[in-house]
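F.,

This is the one I mentioned.
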């Protein structure tokens, strides 16, 4: 457990070669001003390269890649090799930061070939270092340390102390990950001395953190916090928010390992806030997972599940397969603790699926890396081939004589070995006759034990099946109650214009619901999305329906905004939270309209979910960015008067349709694609629109599971 918690220090140490990421926005703006000349000369290439380098260091990878590719284009036109190599190196850095080591290595090889051609030693050392980082992240430590030593030798030769310090640190990280702590400490100490000499505060902070990690792994716990807090102090002083967040995470991890859960939560939440501020998605999901682990150890399973779910959502959206695998492992154990054995089995299957996927992916990457390295090595050795051929001919005669001698000696030794093994075989046969009876007895005992275990498993299986039946029956009963509360589509209103309701719950009960009520000449219609889905979402939806009916049963004719304000008050009153509890999880998003059946005047208000109106063009009425529930900056909901024409179509919906994963790349459908689909079908009949939306969703999902409840309502004025 301790190794898992502190392992992230390894990842942090490898970025020593990157300049501290602070005060860079001003630098980026300054560089952009230089690009206004529009000239395709070497100065333009150098400026593009500087801008690309600044941008990827603040996680703006897409924009950085655009400038780097533009630099490649200009440099190739000008035959400016130094600028071309630098641009290729920037592209390699971008792909490595994004976790694509294969592409990164490919561009580093291209950059290296050019730098070797023009004998640019400083950048040759940088390319070797970049290759070493790729191999180290891939787990090929032998190649990684080899390239770091190549880079170190060149930096020492040309007196580049900054490069020397970072290479020593990277070599220390490889020894650390291999468990060679004395060597790791030696190289971190050497790196620290260099960084102190040149005054590189970022490098000093990273080495302090790494030395703390060595002490942790060696069990010298009294020293760990001393180094971590020193590192934190420096990172705060130089304003490196990522470094501050990482140090806070390390300190939180140490307290967790010491079972000091209060301090562990405090420092992890501080780190989480900073990672969110700088939008560093790669670290948000792991730290949410760590917080979930802390709550698990505190036996607070509800909060643990909440943070595991948040970590899973971010990981799914960004494709972090390793984190997804770890989360399913935790969730499976959590379900087992709760006695939910069916869910435990399903989560464990997903854990195994992602584990196998990562193994296969890792093997493929290693094979491609090996092939790429081989190809580059072949190119480098092409010039030496002729000389090697001459050397081979000179040695051929000597080898032939050696083969004859070795063959004779080998044959003689083989004969002796054969005689020895024949003798051993004879002795083993004698011993086998003595032990065979004993082995038969052991086999019989093993058979009896297997039969006993089989009976135990069958008994447990019957108990689990009985418990699952009870749970399923209860959920089905809740479904019948919910269906009874929801009006059938054909009974929504006899006065309502042509409309459709596409309602597709994810589970037996739904967290989405629709609500309609007719009062005098007014008709109210709502589409709501409660927190969660399944049983928790279903209970919240039934509560929402009951509250809406209660609010509108009085004599007053309320506006949609007034109804939402009152609905929020009832939710907040119903869910009174104790101090320190998460209040943001109980509530709903909703889109609520009121239509005057005589004049067709429409008023509308929304919590997070907008309203789409199409009368030839798409018009979006924005919702208030706050839920029906607790929110730090709560304000009255806005009441909108919606302009429509005869034939206009209004759409109310939850976020389930747009958030569904599918398509050839397994990505979200997204709101933009949802809008395009509605715009393309709005002139068709409402029943036909419903069928098209249903079919488009099924085609998009393919074999993937539905991830959320889905609700879309269309009304033609």
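My design for it:
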């Amino acid at each position: 457990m301790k190794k898992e918690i502190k392992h992230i220090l390894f990842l942090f140490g490898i970025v020593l070669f990157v300049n501290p990421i602070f005060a860079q926005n001003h630098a980026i703006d300054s560089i952009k001003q230089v690009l206004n000349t529009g000239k395709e000369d070497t100065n333009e290439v150098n400026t593009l390269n500087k801008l690309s380098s600044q941008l990827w260091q603040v996680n703006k990878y897409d924009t950085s890649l655009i400038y780097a590719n533009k630099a490649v284009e200009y440099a190739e036109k000008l035959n400016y090799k130094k600028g071309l190599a630098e641009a290729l190196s920037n592209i390699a850095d971008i792909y490595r930061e994004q976790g694509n080591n294969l592409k990164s290595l490919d561009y580093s090889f291209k950059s290296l070939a050019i730098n070797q051609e023009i004998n640019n030693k400083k950048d040759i050392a940088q390319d070797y270092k970049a290759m070493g980082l790729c191999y180290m992240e891939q787990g090929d430590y032998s190649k990684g340390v080899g390239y770091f030593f190549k880079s170190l030798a060149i930096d020492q030769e040309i007196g580049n102390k900054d490069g020397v310090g970072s290479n020593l640190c990277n070599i220390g990280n490889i020894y650390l990950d291999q468990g060679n702590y004395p060597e790791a400490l030696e190289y971190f100490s050497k790196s620290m001395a260099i960084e102190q000499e040149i005054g590189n505060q970022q490098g000093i902070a990273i080495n302090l953190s790494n030395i703390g990690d060595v002490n942790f792994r060696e069990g010298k716990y009294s020293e760990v916090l001393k180094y971590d807090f020193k590192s934190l102090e420096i990172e705060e002083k130089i304003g490196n928010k990522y470094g501050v967040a990482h140090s806070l995470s390390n300190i939180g991890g140490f307290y967790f390992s010491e079972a000091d859960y209060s301090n562990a939560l405090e420092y992890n939440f501080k780190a989480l806030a900073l990672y969110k501020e700088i939008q560093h998605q790669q670290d948000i999901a792991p730290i949410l997972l760590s917080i979930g682990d802390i709550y698990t150890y505190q036996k607070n399973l509800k909060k643990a599940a909440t943070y595991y779910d948040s970590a899973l959502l971010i990981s799914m959206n960004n494709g972090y397969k390793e984190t997804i695998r770890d989360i399913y492992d935790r969730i499976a154990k959590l379900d087992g603790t709760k006695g939910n054995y069916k869910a435990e089995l399903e989560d464990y299957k997903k854990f195994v699926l992602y584990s196998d996927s990562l193994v296969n992916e890792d093997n493929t990457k290693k094979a491609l890396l090996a092939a790429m390295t081989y190809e580059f090595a072949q190119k480098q050795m092409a010039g030496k081939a002729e000389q090697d051929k001459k050397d081979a001919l000179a040695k051929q005669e000597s080898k032939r004589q050696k083969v004859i001698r070795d063959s004779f000696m080998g044959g003689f030794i083989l004969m002796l070995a054969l005689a020895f093994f024949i003798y051993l075989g004879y002795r083993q046969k004698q011993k086998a006759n003595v032990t065979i009876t004993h082995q038969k007895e052991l086999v019989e005992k093993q058979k009896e034990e297997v039969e006993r275990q089989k009976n135990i498993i069958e008994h447990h299986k019957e108990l689990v099946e009985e418990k699952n039946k009870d749970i399923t029956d209860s959920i089905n009963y809740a479904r019948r109650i919910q269906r009874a509360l929801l009006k059938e589509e054909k009974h929504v209103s006899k006065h309502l214009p042509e409309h459709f309701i596409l309602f597709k719950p994810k589970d037996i009960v739904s967290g989405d619901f629709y609500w309609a009520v007719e009062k005098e000449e007014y008709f109210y219609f709502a589409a709501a999305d409660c927190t969660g889905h399944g049983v928790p979402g279903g209970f919240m939806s039934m509560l929402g329906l009951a509250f809406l009916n209660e609010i509108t049963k009085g004599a007053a004719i309320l506006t949609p905004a007034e109804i939402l304000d009152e609905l929020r008050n009832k939710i907040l009153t119903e869910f009174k939270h104790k101090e320190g509890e998460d209040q943001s999880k109980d509530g709903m998003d909703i889109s609520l309209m009121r239509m005057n059946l005589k004049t067709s005047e429409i008023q509308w208000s929304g919590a997070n979910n907008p309203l789409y109106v199409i009368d030839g063009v798409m018009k979006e009425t924005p919702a208030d960015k706050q839920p029906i529930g607790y929110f730090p900056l709560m304000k009255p909901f806005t009441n909108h008067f919606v302009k429509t024409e005869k034939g206009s179509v209004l759409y109310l919906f939850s976020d389930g349709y747009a958030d569904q994963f599918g398509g050839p790349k397994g990505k979200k459908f997204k709101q933009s694609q949802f809008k395009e689909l509605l715009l393309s079908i709005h002139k068709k009949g409402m029943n036909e629109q419903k069928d098209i939306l249903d079919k488009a969703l099924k085609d998009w999902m393919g074999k993937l599971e539905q991830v959320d409840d889905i609700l879309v309502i269309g009304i033609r004025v």
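The mean pLDDT is 79.

Talk soon.
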